[in-house]
Amino acid sequence: MGTTTPPRTLAEALRARGDESLAGLLRARPDLLSPVPNDITQLATRAGTRASVVRALEHLDRFALQTAQALAVAPDPAPYDTLLALLTGDGRDDGDGRGDAGAAITAALPAALGTLREQALVWGEDTRLHLVRTARELLVPSPQHPSPTGLGPTVAEATAGMSPGRLQEILTAAGLPATHDPVSAVAALTGLFTDRTRMAELLDTAPVEALAVLDRLVWGPPYGEVTPNPAPPVQWLRDRGLLLPVSTRTVVLPREAALHLRAGRAHRVPEPVPPALVAAAERDPQAVDRAAAGQGYTALSTVEELLKLWNDGGPAVLRAGGLSVRELKRTAGALDVPEPVAAFWIELAYAAGLLASDGETDERYAPTPASDEWLDLPAQDRWTHLATAWLAATRTAGLIGGQDAKGRALSALGPDLDRSAAPGVRRRVLDLCASLPAGTAPDPQTLLARLSWERPLRASAPGGPAAPGDASDLRSRIALWTLDEAELLGITGRGALASQTRALLGAGPGEAAARLAPLLPEPLDHVLLQADLTAVAPGPLERPLAGMLSVLADVESKGGATVYRFTPGSVRRALDAGQAAADLHSFLATHSRTPVPQPLSYLIDDVARRHGHLRIGAASAYVRCDDEAVLNEILADKRAAPLRLRRLAPTVLAAQADPGALLEGLREMGYAPAAESAEGDVLITRAGARRTPPRTPPVPVPEGPPVPDTALLTAAVRAVRAGDAAARAVRKETSGTDAAGSLPRTTAAETLATVQAAAMTGSAVWIGYVNADGAASQRVIAPVKVEGGFVTAYDHTADEVRTYPLHRITGVAELADEQPA
Q1: Is the full-model pTM beyond 0.85?
Q2: Do 396 and 481 contact (CB within 8 A), yes or no?
Q3: Beta strand 534-537 with 528-530: parallel, antiparallel or unpaired?
Q4: C-alpha–C-alpha distance, residues 68 and 462, integer Å
Q5: What is the percent of the chain where pLDDT is above 90?
Q6: Which residue from 103, 207, 379, 598 puts its CA 20 to 30 A from 89's CA?
């Protein structure tokens, strides 16, 4: 095909593209690569399939979509000026139609048209623009799926099947000359509706009520219901063809008439320019960074608290998967946050690979081995780990508490929470926030409007975008959840994007951690002990100190300073973990900036004195104590009845309960028993003993096929070009019986002679080949070597050197001297 010949098909248009342009198409529509097309014709066919076109339309911005919609109602092919006129109008409503809106449309249209061309939705030169047939079918109006432009069918489409007599009546009522040719009648009526002067004269004679009917239909939907005896205004419109019948009770305003009433515009409000992002507030950037860092540190503390809460084995996994409502409520209470916020932290820890199910028969959630590595990282690195996992996660915590398509409740950590659009929406929301000056918080409604313009969502039919700022669709809800979650995680501070987040989005986690580190508080190595059995931590504590204090005391309140309370139960917990009373006294004296209060020392000594006085072992279980009076007291206590105790010896009681239940039962009765091993040694219970097997974080569910890298695109374009050259190669006719597309047939001797000659001259030949599975194909090869019953050749179809057994070659044909360009 010569360079000056206009393309006649989409395949020819793609064939005329350069390699970079083809790579751009495959990058924009990666579904076309699965698998790699054999040639350009197959690529064009695949690009025109319904599923692929729908996916491509869904990725257009609003003005590119409006351009495609305008082409769908324009003649096929349509000149560029016709398309421009459908978007700007004919100027009857704003002077010359080229005011501010017209100038913006004129400036934006080439880029929108370029996007449609790049994605192979439009092809052809500016004088003959073609919208691919599938896109036209998706965007064409019908009673079931009205056009997003609100335009109805053309006069020719609406009058198809109408009787010639009825057409004559319409022409006569409209003041047009009668004709017995239906085609001429349709052309005359179309000419009337597209003639500005004559159409205006006709509407000047219309009753006011008839004009009111047209006003209701002009911007869509263009369909209306009528009674068998319509009102006079409706009958006036029907008589003159301004309303044409679709069925016995439905009429439609023809497209040509609607365009006249709209001053030639296909859309009421063309949107060539994206909505501006409005600032809701402007704050000091340094204050934003500090607020975000503080919230980020709170996020780390919350996740650490969650891991500690489930340290010894968390809640059970539901049979259908996920966390029960009761366990979510219990976790929310322990973290002192609302349930939706607790669900977010749980899902974030799961997405970061810090929590998982243990896979046991009695399956439970527990921290993973990776959580221990995460806890050992510096605070800034722990934050970047969480933020990176959040950005990439497709699991959407905001859905928890809702219902799936079958009406089943969606639970935390359960199935069906993946939404492939979530990472893209999160990243785009943050990119839009980053486009504002530092310290500026965006207005959520203008943010939603911008997202809706960039990818308008489909309603009942392809091309029907949601209203700007409509929060009822999933993408808008994800955007709003993103704003809330970003504030919780410290991605934003007081609504504005923090500088450490800008670094994370641009330079990566290393730079973000470097910027965050100076903003985080230094961990403290001390607490303030008070006489009321409490300890005050005036800031974040070093991990060893915080870990030991969390075992020795209970957290009473959180905030800028954390208050810990010492109780007999908390002291016993420390003793159970293997600490001696002397160790606890030394620990407190070392890490307290105030003297150790006497009541606290007495508490530790008193609990330590009674700790281990009773010994619990397995009989099923037994109680051993050197003091017979204590055992007598236990037997006499009615609260011990469920344990079913009996005396085996003066200092030993046996129980029909397992050691764990016996241990807890006696502790509830106010005793301080200690468990012992089979050898009689005291068992030490250490916190954090339960971990899942090594687990990988959940893999995000991608939105459609992954975007191919440069190497894959280059190889794919090369393969498509090679396959296209081979498919379009023309062979010389060897006999008059050769059917088009059939495999060449030659004898073994002729095949051998031909490939040997081709190897000597370096020319290419056409072969028929049957592989080991019996699949036949045609290939264009350039033989290099022929020996031992094999031919080694460069295969133009596969664009690589291959070796073929001669006995599998059905025949050989020489290529024609002239090959298609």
Answers
A1: no
A2: yes
A3: antiparallel
A4: 11
A5: 43
A6: 207
